[in-house]
Amino acid sequence: MTAAPLTLPARALTGAFAASGVLHLARPQVFEPLVPSWVPVGPRRTVHLSGVAELACAAAVLHPATRQAGGWATAALLLAILPGNVQMALDGRRARSRAWRIGTLARVPLQAPLVGVALRVARGR
Known about the structure:
Helix content: over 70%
Radius of gyration: 15 Å
Largest sheet: none
Number of strands: 0
């Protein structure tokens, strides 16, 4: 069975995951405040683990042999990081920058279409 070609939305998702994964590893302090206090392994380790997971998902989606599993993993990861995005939106309400407040609030509802793209990839569409 030949894998379906990588669609433009799937390419965009892969690119975003790759860039975000690199940023998580290069500048973890940017993401540490997003980690909810109830996460047991601590903010720095959580940020590093999520960065590695994002890079792994991006790589898996790119390769036809692992694309389906990569799509499922990407959807799962997006759901797993939802609490961090909610925390970011809650914290962002106090930000001085209007653009930052809007951006942090927009992240939460934008996860639904990202999950949709990941699920389409997982289903070979």
